[in-house]
Prior knowledge:
Elements: H1 2-12, H2 17-22, H3 28-41, H4 53-67, H5 77-85, H6 90-100, H7 107-120, E1 136-148, E2 154-164, E3 170-175, H8 180-194, E4 200-203, E5 210-212, E6 219-220, H9 222-231, E7 234-237, H10 247-260, H11 269-284, H12 296-303, E8 319-324, E9 330-333, E10 336-339, E11 348-353, E12 357-362, E13 365-371, E14 379-380, H13 388-395, H14 398-408, H15 410-420, H16 428-436, H17 438-441, H18 443-455, H19 461-470, H20 504-509
Amino acid sequence: MFQYRQALVRLRAGDSEREIARTGVMGREKLAxxxxxxxxxxxxxxxxxxxxxxxxxxxxxxxxxxRSTISTVEPHRAIVARWLEAGVGxxxxxxxxxxxxxxxxxxxxVARMLVALRGARPPEVTVRLSFEPGEAVQVDFGxxxxxxxxxxxxxxxxxxxxTLAHSRHQYVEFVxxxxxxTWLGCHRRAFEWFSGVPRRVIIDNAKCAITRxxxxxxxxxxxxxxxxxxxxFRIDACPPHDPQKKGIVEAGVKYVKGNFLPTRTFRDLTDLxxxxxxxxxxxxxxxxxxxxxxxxxxxxxxxxxxxxxxxxIAPDLASWHRVSVHRDxxxxxxxxxxxxxxxxxxxxxxxxxxxxxxxxxxxxxxxxTHPRGSRPGQRITVRDHLPPHAQAFFAHxxxxxxxxxxxxxxxxxxxxxxxxxxxxxERLRAAQGVIALVKGHGAERVEAACARxxxxxxxxxxxxxxxxxxxxxxxxxxxxxxxxxxxxxPRFARDALSLFTPNPQQDLLH
Length: 510
């Protein structure tokens, strides 16, 4: 109201409206309107005391209210206020008034009503949180630039940002994804970057950390809980839809996206992270922070001594996954198959994956451990996990057959070796069948039957089985003598090669 009081003093001194307007106090039209109000109130009388600012404001406010017109939205004020509280936008409110309540006014009238209603509400009051040195860090992801992935396709990168809540010193790393393994690995490298561990880590409700978001009872990812236990920090998840609880790192992510990324180019992810580390030390760490008014690295020198020490042996960070045991007694993780005991077929197990090993658990009972597979489609099997009949099938291989046959006798060994040496037909099952005959007939009879089959040049499983079934092996071996008249090649025996030798006379007959 000072300008009205100043204008009133000049009017009472006899200055014209033109002269007062030249001073820039107010325009001539506004000054003329004020002269009329002041004259009506008797303020232009030099003998009257000057009114105070409150009196001038009261009179001017009543005059403005008297001159103002009633808004066309005024009849609908209650419903507009209810929609505004529900979060409905101005355009939608105007459309609904026209459609459902026959409103014919403009959107500008609705917009003015919304401004008045918002101004009537009390402003939100907030309190800035302060943290002691070493007390907490805040963590968040932000979108990074698009780079060429090793597979050749362009892909979006993500900026992992961890900010010390007291000093504002940052750790920044760009990654390809937001998986649990990536999340845990970034934590390990961030703690090593800070040379210590804070007492509390304030996070959002990302799926890689919180499996069920809740303001009071959040459910923490099992792998992240192991990480917190190993490093000795407490997980502090913000309430859902309340990012202000971690406003320090939110501002840090915006600072990375607004200060670091726009003015640089990057060859690949390695180059991007190398430039980010230099930027944190050479630029972000030495600037005067807008809130603390101190360089982050200067405060970090104080905070570093108050961080918890890193564990002597780094925790074995692992990710947990639910997997099903299929009919073939294997589970699948990242397209690699790992065996599980056949009795667990059809059940759901917990799989704990580290960089070098994969372990299976039924609830909390350890079931199996395998080395981590390296290529898709790889099958890692422990033979003891298979059913008994499958174990026996895989155990009775060619080497097993030769070893068992040698234990039965020389003839049996020779017969099995002849079967396995066939270059046309795979006769492993026949060899297994010959050895299996020992159960019903004994090793001596099988050895005798094999010797008789070899003597008759019929080294086959069916021959040995027929000899044992007929009991011929129990008879004395018969000497096969060749008659004198048939010395040498028999008269009616044809040379095997003659079967394939062309005969010109036969060709003529045909």
